[in-house]
TrEMBL record:
<feature type="active site" description="Proton acceptor">
    <location>
        <position position="354"/>
    </location>
</feature>
<dbReference type="InterPro" id="IPR030390">
    <property type="entry name" value="MeTrfase_TrmA_AS"/>
</dbReference>
<feature type="binding site">
    <location>
        <position position="214"/>
    </location>
    <ligand>
        <name>S-adenosyl-L-methionine</name>
    </ligand>
</feature>
<feature type="binding site">
    <location>
        <position position="235"/>
    </location>
    <ligand>
        <name>S-adenosyl-L-methionine</name>
    </ligand>
</feature>
<dbReference type="GO" id="GO:0005829">
    <property type="term" value="C:cytosol"/>
</dbReference>
<dbReference type="InterPro" id="IPR030391">
    <property type="entry name" value="MeTrfase_TrmA_CS"/>
</dbReference>
<comment type="function">
    <text>Dual-specificity methyltransferase that catalyzes the formation of 5-methyluridine at position 54 (m5U54) in all tRNAs, and that of position 341 (m5U341) in tmRNA (transfer-mRNA).</text>
</comment>
<feature type="binding site">
    <location>
        <position position="186"/>
    </location>
    <ligand>
        <name>S-adenosyl-L-methionine</name>
    </ligand>
</feature>
<dbReference type="GO" id="GO:0019843">
    <property type="term" value="F:rRNA binding"/>
</dbReference>
<protein>
    <recommendedName>
        <fullName>tRNA/tmRNA (uracil-C(5))-methyltransferase</fullName>
        <ecNumber>2.1.1.35</ecNumber>
    </recommendedName>
</protein>
<keyword id="KW-0489">Methyltransferase</keyword>
<dbReference type="GO" id="GO:0030697">
    <property type="term" value="F:tRNA (uracil(54)-C5)-methyltransferase activity, S-adenosyl methionine-dependent"/>
</dbReference>
<keyword id="KW-0808">Transferase</keyword>
<feature type="active site">
    <location>
        <position position="320"/>
    </location>
</feature>
<dbReference type="Pfam" id="PF05958">
    <property type="entry name" value="tRNA_U5-meth_tr"/>
</dbReference>
<dbReference type="InterPro" id="IPR010280">
    <property type="entry name" value="U5_MeTrfase_fam"/>
</dbReference>
<dbReference type="GO" id="GO:0030488">
    <property type="term" value="P:tRNA methylation"/>
</dbReference>
Length: 362
């Protein structure tokens, strides 16, 4: 069935409203006009999560409006999601209806797909998973040509791989990414490529080093590393660190030092507040940082980390929350000016948007 929040006829007007909102947020800082990168109007979301709702004796895919967990919107197809997800949805539903081993106490389904066509399906249960489930899941994985992960309390069973393989192109080069199940990855692959291309261009070719905070699975690290002499990248999530290390190796990128530290911890290390064993053998003073790249969570940078970025001649900032972006820029505005900014429409038909700014020392 159709979803009330999906209306391609409104795309241009909703994008214009987001642009105006970003312009207003950055107006106090004399920002230039934003470069605007639109999304495909449908089939743009590579990740989707559905609860299952029982009605007329069957379980159906369901979503809920924000703030309402009691009135389900039953889903047959989902034009917001990738074509691969829409192909998988009816086949998976037929499988759980036909198989007690797959369908019994199944309550949630998550799809993770890629632009290159890979797919992983996570099935969550209110019961232990047994040998019968594993046999049925293996047959399902073969039928769907997808990996399957089964989850229940204290269990995580993997049929195939526990990650998908993505290929993104930046400036004519293909980069290969492992995107783990359960870890963050950019949901809109087409817009993600545009974000990477913009950041790659904004950084430019440099003969100094890059500090990257919140590097995740290395989404930006891979292309940006080709623009500088060396990179010091930090990330706190273990699964993301493992994925980033694998992605660096898979792409033959060897000028990145990756440490598992939070941005706050790295700030303490650079300020020589206290030592960290995870930095043993790393000469922080041996880096010649010309640019710091940040892609923080929705809360933005904390004041101390924001103050740390002030040290750098150039700050390249990707934000999933323009309100906290504006708050951080307000802290930096006396020392840095905005030389470029961009709007990336990662989440069409919602109020959410991603923004990018390049701040350069005055």
């Amino acid at each position: 069935m159709s979803q009330p929040f999906f209306d391609p006829d409104t795309y241009a007007s909703q994008l214009a409203a987001k642009r105006q909102r970003l312009v207003e947020l950055l107006a106090p800082f004399a920002a230039p006009a934003p470069e605007v990168f639109e999304s495909p109007h449908e089939h743009y979301r590579l990740r989707s999560e559905f609860r299952l709702w029982r009605e007329d004796g069957q379980r159906h895919y369901a979503m809920f409006a924000p703030g309402d967990k009691h009135t389900p919107i039953l889903i047959d197809d989902f034009p917001v999601a990738s074509r691969r997800i829409n192909q998988l949805m009816p086949r998976l539903k037929a499988a759980w209806l036909a198989s007690e081993a797959l369908g019994f106490k199944l309550f949630q389904v998550e799809f993770l797909t890629t632009l290159s066509g890979d797919a992983l399906v996570t099935l969550a249960y209110h019961r232990p998973l047994d040998d019968a489930w594993q046999a049925a899941a293996r047959a399902l994985a073969e039928e769907l040509q997808a990996s399957i992960v089964g989850r229940s309390r204290g269990q995580r069973l993997v049929i195939g791989r526990d990650h998908v393989l993505e290929t993104l192109q930046v400036a004519g080069r293909d980069y290969r990414y492992r995107q783990p199940e359960g870890a963050f990855s950019q949901p809109n692959g087409e817009v993600c490529q545009k974000m990477l291309g913009w950041a790659f261009d904004a950084l430019g070719q440099r003969d100094d080093d890059l500090l990257e905070l919140y590097c995740g699975n290395g989404n930006f690290t891979l292309p940006l590393a080709t623009r500088v002499r060396k990179v010091l990248a930090t990330e706190i999530s273990k699964s993301s660190v493992h994925a980033a290390l694998a992605n660096l190796d898979d792409n033959g990128i060897d000028n990145v030092t990756l440490v598992r530290l939070s941005a706050e911890e790295l700030t303490q290390a650079l300020n020589e507040v206290r030592p960290f064993r995870r930095l043993a053998g790393i000469d922080l003073k041996g880096f010649d940082f010309g640019t710091v790249f940040v892609d923080p969570p929705r809360a933005g940078m904390d004041p101390d980390t924001c103050e740390l970025t002030r040290r750098f001649p150039r700050i390249l900032y990707i934000s999933c929350n323009p309100e906290t972006l504006a708050r951080n820029i307000a802290q930096l505005h006396d020392s840095h000016r905005i030389s470029r900014c961009a709007l990336f429409d990662q989440f069409p038909y919602t109020h959410h948007m991603e923004a990018g700014v390049l701040l350069e020392r005055r």
